[in-house]
Structures are given as structure tokens and as C-alpha cells.
Design goal:
By secondary structure, this protein is an alpha/beta fold. It is 44% helix and 14% strand. Helix 3 (90-103) packs antiparallel against helix 12, helix 4 (116-139) packs parallel to helix 5 (152-162) and helix 15 (430-438) crosses helix 16.
Length: 468
Amino acid sequence: MKPPKIVIIGAGSAIFGLGALARIIRHPRLRGTELALVDINEEGLALMTRLAEKMNQAWGGQMTITSSTRREEVLPGANFVIVSIQVGPRETVWEMDWQIPLRHGVRQPYAENGGPGAFSHTARNLPVILDIARDMERLCPDAWYLNVTNPLIRLSYAVHKYTRIKVLGLCHQLLWGYAMAAYVLADRWSLAVPAHFHVHTDASNMPRFIPVALAGLEHLNIKAAGINHFSWVTSITDRHTGEDLYPLLRERWFSEKYAEFEPLTRDMFQIFGMMPTAGDSHMCEYIAYTHDPVTQPWVKYDLKLQSWDGNRKRRAERWALARSIVNGEMAVEELANLSRFAILEEPIPEIIEALHWDTDYYSHQLNIPNNGGLIPNLPNDAIIEVPGVVSAMGIQGLSFPPLPPAIAELCRRELHRTEIVVEAAVKGDRSLALQALLLDPMVTDIAVARAMLDDLLAEFAEYLPQFA
């Protein structure tokens, strides 16, 4: 069987492209692959193409590498299409997603996957996400669509509902669950953890976070189920002995010693009986207890916004790294150790290998349709997050018992809201958009919702042609 053809849309991004290219080109079973890189940023695409060619030569990838600013030129014959895009300048529009609702008194804790800002985040990206899938229907209808763009649930659901393309949503957020558990249980394996450790998602925290997360992967086996950025640990065991560590984790985390560690996650763990995996920064987006202007829970729980300037700095550093390798100032081999540069290793090549060559890869985190009721008390066909086995037969998620009723209800609310947000964004329907905002746990006033919607649609008009 000949190697696959892989298309990466958004390959000109230094944030995503560096790690993705390094892992794909180094992967032994992907030697000889046809790799096509796509981005509308010509300068970024040219740089990342030259970097890919250097990697290919240095690591013996034997790949055929092409690039284009027009995806339709390279999609024919593709087996896998990896999509990592962003409509609008990433940090600028994200900050606007937060600032616009704030004018109306709505202080979101994060504004990426939940809250009013996540509506505009969805609506900006969704037309392009669907256009890619519709091009695939014409040009490579049997290919897999590997989506790594947030809001992951909403955009993956749109591809699943409105096209015939097979879609898999990929996220690394379960690593935050591994890091939290490893920190609380660190003395069991004499793990070295940084002082004042936390799992906030800022780029500046990644060098402290990644070693603890990797230690967690080495020593723990976690199974979790739910929805993206809101999954819940169903079991946690010692990877080497099989010992059930849930009782010890509860005992330790609920002690006074850990009262200040990820305090919102700790509270939700105590109240609902299962450990959430995403960490405070992401879990806070789907719940109603994080934005009250009187009690200011963001202070109590130390809920930090994304550092937009920190992200800009990280982007500049990644560009500088790519240029230094392309210009011969640094050896390509330096990218063999991605964690050195605070880059998380995504399991994309392992998933491609398993789907193409039937190597039976177990993934601990897959975002797939809930077909067959993998989580029986969540809606069928909704995008849920479970572990599963990847092979040439496709993707088979593991089946779980029903989630506790209260947790299931929290997940169901987000999944039903997803349906309305996606339909509104597909159709450009203002009435549905208003309904979607009024279903958001952060919105408590009809007039405020109307005013926010007017502002979001006006200020992002250039990115929202469907609402014109």
C-alpha cells in the first residue's frame, strides 16, 4: 500500500506548523508520503515549506513536498486533511471577543469556547471550515478531516452535520488532567514539580507545565469522558501496577494543602464527585459560576485570561526559530526534542498511520460523534470526547456508563447550545443567534444579549458574510 497524501491547511502558522511538521516528517511509517502545505499567508507558507524541505532532507523522510495558497490545487487524491486555521488576526479578534461583551457588563472568564465571544469565534471560522469540507466532497470525498481549530465541538459538529466528510476533532487538553493528577500525587513517584505550580494555559507557563504533564503520562492511566474542555475522569490508575488511585487523589486534593491548587476544578470535583480534566482556564467557559460582577469569582478562583501579548511573543519566537533553522543558524535536529521549545507533541502521525496502515492505535482523547451512544445519556450524534481505538476500520470510541445526572446535564446544555450556534452561523440567522446567546450561562438579560449581538455582528462584519 503506497504512503498517504496529507494536506495541511494552515501550515503557514508557526504555532501549529512547527510541531506538526516535525512530528509528521520524523515519523518512520510516513516516509514517502506526499505532503502538501496550504496557507493564504504567502510569506509564512514559503518559510514553512523551506523548513519542511530541510526536515525532509535531514531526517530521510523521502517525502514529496508541495505548497499552494489555493487548497483546491492540492486536495485531489488527499487521504488526510489537517485543518488549523484562524479567520482574522488571532490575538486581536480573541481580545475583541472578550472586550465587546465586557462593554455590556458581561465579563467572560476566557472567551474562546464558551461565552458570547465564542459565538463570534465560531461564526468567523465556520464558513471556511465548511468550505474546506465541501471542497473535499468534490476533490477527495473519502479523506479524513482532522480538525484542530477551536471551538472544537462546534466546528467539528458543523462538518459532521452539514457534509458527508469523516471528521475527527483533535485536542491535547487531557494532558492538563494528567498534569494536575501528577502534581497532587507527585510524592508517590518522587516527581520534581515547580514551586507554585499551576496549569494555566498561558504560553509562558508551558515550560513549567509540560514536564509535569509528561511525568503524568509516564505514571498514570486516565480514562475520561464528556465533551471537549469539559471531560471527567472515570478512572485513574497507576500505569505500572494497575492500582486504583481515585481514592488517594480525592483524599490528597481535598486536604488543606491543595486548597489553592486549581480551586475551581477542586470545587467541581468535590461537588459533582468526578475530577474535571481541563483545568480551571478552560472548564470555566461552560458553567454559570464564573462571571458574577458582585461576587467576582474570577478573583476567588484566580481565573486568568489568555495573555494575548504572551501569545504574540510566542508566535514571534516560533517564527525566529523557523528562520534560524532555514538560514542554517541552528541544526534541524534541534526540533527532534519539541518539549525543549515548549511545543506539545500532537499524536497526528500515529492516528494517520493507524487509519492508513491498520496499526491499531489507542488514543486517550478523541472528539467524535456519539453514534451508538458511547456516552448513553448524552445526545446521539453530538460531538463527544472519549478515548478509542484507531484502525483501518475507522475510529471506534470506547463505550462508557452514563455520566452522573448533574454532569450529564452540564454537558447536554453545551451540546444543545452547539446545535443552535452552528445553525445560526451556517444560515446567518440573527434570530437563532440571539437565542444562542440567551442560552449561554453568562448571559442574564435580554436587552444585553441584543446589544452584544448587534456589536459583535457589526465589529466582525468583514469576517461574517453570512450575516450581511
